[in-house]
Specification:
The complex is a heterodimer of chains A (about 230) and B (about 400). With about 230 residues, chain A is an alpha/beta fold. Chain A has 6 helices and 10 strands. Chain B is of the alpha+beta class and about 400 residues long. Chain B folds into 2 domains: about 190 residues, no CATH class; about 180 residues, no CATH class. Chain B contains 15 helices and 11 strands. In chain B, a hairpin with a 2-residue loop joins strand 2 and strand 3. Chain B starts with a helix and ends with a helix. Classes of the chains: A alpha/beta (about 230), B alpha+beta (about 400). The interface between A and B is medium-sized, with 29 and 24 residues.
Chain lengths: ~230, ~400
Amino acid sequence: MLLQVHALEKDYHLGKTIIPALRGLSFNIAEGDFLSIMGPSGCGKTTLLNILGCIDKPSRGTVYFKGVDLSTLSENQEADLRHREIGFIFQSFNLVPVLTVAENIELPLLLGKAGKKERRKRVDELVRLVDLSEFAVHRPDELSGGQRQRVAIARALVNRPSLVIADEPTANLDSENARMVLEEMAKLNRQEGVSFIFSTHNPEILEYARRLIRLKDGLIVEDVTGAGHALP
Amino acid sequence: MPYLKMILFNLGKHPRRTALILVAILASVLIMEIVSGTLEGIRQNFFTNMLADGGHGQVYGSGYKDHLQPWNSNIVLEDYTPLLQRLKDSDEVVWAEPIINFGAMLLLDDKNLTCLASGIQGQSRFFDKVRNSLASGAFPETDNFILISRQLAAFLDLSEGQELVLLAEDRSGSPYYRVFVIGELFETDSADFDQNRVLISFSAAQDLLWLPDGATELRFLLEDRDSADDFSDRLAADFAAAGAELYSWRELNAGLLMLIDMMDVVIIFFNLLMLLVAATVITNAILMNVFERLPEYGTLRAIGFRRRHLTAMILAEGAILGVAGSIGGLLVGIPLVLYFQHNGLDWGGISEAFGMGSFFTFHFRIDHSLQNLATGTLTALGGSLYAAWAASRMDIIGSLKET
């Protein structure tokens, strides 16, 4: 099992007011899952993804990543885990504007021990994988929204993570590009065997997911497998 | 390379801010370079001019230190020869000579001028600035010469070869005068010296003051000038027993040395203040850079960068600015210091007041420049430190929310 979530709760404190964002979620994610988390704005999707991605901590409950309790990790261990095992795709792409496509994809590799040749080889693989070979030396401001998100996907996959977390990856894209990005993610899930968890509030995108968790007011109201029909 | 690209891009993205930081560091380093060149010039001026003239040590008659009028003709070395020989017998002494300094009056028809006269031997190793300004480059060998400055000659309307009367009070308290012939005219860098000093031969001074075997002081040079205090301490008792007082150059110039040391301290404080201002400007500018890039830092941390990686990147930005600004400051400052080292600067009455002559040169030292380079760089690093700490302290969620 890739992820085991047990009684997860998260509260936000606004002055004296406590706002419960997650109210006790329990579920598991298997390796190779292609999971969509859906719900209205404010239901806790981003909070859940941040906790699963180790960039936020729960108020109560536990999360196990490949059997390791995330609450036992130090900050540096969390950073190492994110570096080795988790890839992130952001709604706003979050690419470094001065770097080229290849250099943006290469960024996570700079923290590892791979030499220049090895890094170059891996970057070339990813660039081909996301069909951006002819744009490798272009900067993000020279790409369309869909192309930028594909760069972000490649960056998320460059270290061969077990899990890719995407928070509203298509929110800033038109429907055509959104579909292309989701198809890309699905293809990579199939080919690379990487688990994907992505959040969305767009019901049209749901057809690409093989599993759906629906949140409402911080609680799971639906957990369905085999929900998508656009994937083979 | 991506790190360097990211840093250089950020610096180029805000050219005015980057220029402000660079100018702050450049100005700081430039000022430090000029100040260090000036202070080193003062030191060198002291050592080359004042010590060259005053020697590494001096011997006076008993009572010199406490007397209100050190040029009083009663404070003399009655028989200086044994003391001179004592000095010359020491392996540490490379040169020693007797000198007679006394108050005198120049008499010329309707013009009378008080002055300080010095009786020196022809082969004197002191009074370089007088000797070097003479056309012949040497003191006259005759007994009857008097050397006066061009300034004094112009005031007295006299020229070389003309006669001049020098009046002094001898050992018995009686006035005595002699007629001298003006030798070459000298001109030093000290208006005070030129206006008040005349030089005559040692034997003529002995005659004028009725000091057949005496002198007012012995002046000597050591192999190692830094051993002067130790030399003085060792021989003080011997010389005291012989009715003499022995002083090292540090003792004789204690006030000036203290002033130079004080200047060192004042300049350190001045530099610190200036660097504090520069660091504040830098901190502010880099903080603005950093907070604009928080989403980028949040992304980097999300993909696995640790806090220390971000800290290193921001400090590297500061270091690049520090080195670039410091080099800029040195590129302007070093030529300036070298120019004034070659051409000198006339400080007029300011330095005259401290007995250093009105004109002195700066002095360039490579170690001072390297020190200033390091200081400028460290200032920029220090200014970036807070920004780096602030950026690395931000939590990932908070940073990403700035998008």
